């Protein structure tokens, strides 16, 4: 029963979702693609407030991605099919077939796929929170205004003509590019993805079997490591960066350079105290291994 109600509510939300109100419409004040204007008209919200929210989110990096996602999911008035929806069902109306929806759908899918994948790698928790918050906000707005305004009803859409695409001023494109660039740069700067990773270990009980990083350098400091009571192997590597080890002074160890011997890393053996420690160091693409 609950599942049936949930499915029915989601279907109604999807069927009454906002439509993008393009700039070419006489009564539209859209600035870019009509996303904020369409959401504001559908749920009776000031579009200016929505634009402020998107600009603020742009400085976290996710604003442009959310905007593009909504563009992909919202149909352009008076069409009934969105670019994303056109990939699942071919538009029936001739005017929808002529609008190039499927081309936009594929382009949007590729761009969004790459964008969300990168954002999940850099800030997974924040990205999931933003998606969930967007869904919850949409649901709350739907509960407040379950019925569409008169201008969005199917009959009104069927009778309306498709407004032509109006040429955008160069400054609009420049501002959009700057916002996207600023958002991506901010996300990268706030992420730990490209930062150096440093681990200091002086007790055998705290020594892990593997120290890895996807991006950035991986550095393991073992210079004060106490002798081991039993043999152990430790692997230090970075998939896309440098990997290095400061070798222990007291411990019995062997060093293996996984990338082959280089001036910065040469396989060796050290006679020390305690059980044998096997150290393996390897760097990934765009990096090198080093020891000291």
Automatic annotation (TrEMBL):
Residue spans crossing the bilayer: 48-73, 106-139, 169-189
Domain Phage shock protein PspC N-terminal stretches: 26-76
Coiled-coil region list: none
InterPro entries according to UniProt: Phageshock_PspC_N (IPR007168)
Entries under Pfam families matching the protein: PspC
Highest taxon listed in the record's lineage: Bacteria
Alphabetical UniProt keywords: Membrane, Transmembrane, Transmembrane helix
Keyword check for Membrane: yes
Protein name, UniProt field: PspC domain protein
Organism of provenance: Corynebacterium pelargi
